Amino acid sequence: MKVLVINSGSSSLKYQLYDMTNESVLAKGLVERIGMDSSILTHKPTGGETITEVSEILEHNTAIRKVLDKLVHKEQGVLKSVTEIEAVGHRVVHGGEYFKESMIVDRVAKEKIRELIDLAPLHNPAAMMGINATEANMPGVAQVVVVDTAFHQTMPEKAYLYAIPRVLYNKYKVRRYGAHGTSHQYVSRIAAEFLKKPIKDLKIITCHIGNGGSLTAILNGISVDTSMGMTPLEGLMMGTRSGDLDPAIVPYVMNKEDLTVNEVNSMLNKHSGLLAISGISSDMREITDGRAAGDPNCTLAFDMYEYRLRKYIGAYAAAMNGVDVIVFTAGIGENSIIVREAVCENLTYLGVELDKSLNAIRNDDPRRISSSNSKVEVLVIPTNEELVIARDTYRLISGTQA
Ligand code: ADP
């Protein structure tokens, strides 16, 4: 079965086409700047050359049509006909309390995603556009949604409620939902396989740190706490997001600077984090380069980032009364030797002992970076959210066909 995985953003659409007989990627690509002038389509058939085309793509419908055209293109394509694609899997950012696992797209699922636009105003409309555009271009094809919040639906009340009037939860479902659930779940499963231990016997802290970042405490295989909250703003310091802050700062700054709700939202989501403190970039590579060159602002940005990350690891070890495994994943977690080293050097009280030479190895395989004496296994596990989406889609669709 061939499965197309779609990650639809408000002005972008990423795709990967899988052949599920061997879970190989046949082609992948990205449409950027949808709705703006000079939209860019980048298409890469596996083993072939990357093709980049600039044109005007006004909405997601056209974006999917162009992607399908590429997939069946005589030279650049990998399919004879679009009908070879038997199912499409979509990433959905916010599933509220409804989506506890991946689901086949039907009328109810669509209604729920639409209802949840209130909680994810930037992301869920984009997912809906992707679903509708798929329906328009591939009528009748089965669709599945894989939801980023679903894995965290196991959090207990004491972890997901905010200490604010209960009426806000009852009326508006104001609570913590988390994010990156697909990735946290995937890397925790791979960690248990790698260690050859049943996941139900492990206390795992997964650190998904990329542009956005979150940590999850996984006890006996289920998420018991995670650092993102009602929205992806809570928790760690991130590329452009503030992470945790005193909520009283918001009205204070709005008042002093005469800011609107949108302006303060934008300040905390787009102009904070590494970018605000370094003054130069939200990209960890530039921060570590700046730090190496002696830039004091980059050094401070790095130190704050590492300090806050380490405090969360301590918090989750406390939440689970211990930790057996710490997993690093996503752009920074998989690649930044220096962030991992700085974090682990200060976790000796937990029994963490880093093996610096193992930490310096770069490859794409799951690997151990702790020494043989370490009381906690520290692993680097490349995440693969697209593969999880393809697998869930395949599982649910073949289930209905069996
Ligand atoms: P997203 O959250 O958008 O999916 P990624 O998981 O791709 O992002 O992570 C992007 C982050 O990973 C950036 O901050 C980037 O600097 C960082 N990163 C990528 N490669 C490296 C590297 N070799 N060293 C340090 N940081 C890296």
Topology:
Layout lengths: L1 E7 L4 E7 L4 E9 L6 E7 L5 E5 L4 H12 L13 E8 L10 E2 L2 H9 L8 H14 L4 E6 L9 H4 L5 H7 L8 H15 L7 E7 L3 E7 L2 E5 L22 H9 L3 H10 L2 H6 L5 H9 L3 H24 L5 E5 H6 L1 H9 L10 H5 L6 E2 L8 E4 L4 H17 L1
Parallel strand pairs: 1-6, 6-8, 9-12, 12-14
Antiparallel strand pairs: 1-2, 2-3, 3-4, 4-5, 7-8, 9-10, 10-11, 13-14
The structure holds adenosine-5'-diphosphate (ADP).
Adenosine-5'-diphosphate (ADP) binds next to helix 10 and helix 12.
Which key features would you list for this structure?
402 residues, alpha/beta, Nucleotidyltransferase, domain 5, 2 domains, eight-stranded mixed β-sheet, six-stranded mixed β-sheet, 15 helices, 14 strands, binds adenosine-5'-diphosphate
CATH superfamily of the largest domain: ATPase, nucleotide binding domain
Order of helices and strands: EEEEEHEEHHEHHHEEEHHHHHEHHHEEH
Placed side by side, the strands forming the largest sheet appear as 5-4-3-2-1-6-8-7
How much is the average pLDDT? 95
The level of helicity is 25-40%
The CATH class of the largest domain, by name, is: Alpha Beta
Number of helices: 15
Alpha-carbon distance between the termini? Answer: 13 Å
Bound molecules: adenosine-5'-diphosphate
Tell me what the CATH architecture of the largest domain is: 2-Layer Sandwich
Task: Please indicate the count of domains.
Answer: 2
What structural class do the secondary elements suggest? alpha/beta
**Residue ranges: pLDDT <50 for 5 or more in a row?**
none
Give the total of beta strands: 14
Strand content: 15-25%
- Label the overall shape: globular
How is the biggest beta sheet arranged? Answer: 8 strands, mixed
Radius of gyration: 22 Å
CATH topology of the largest domain: Nucleotidyltransferase, domain 5
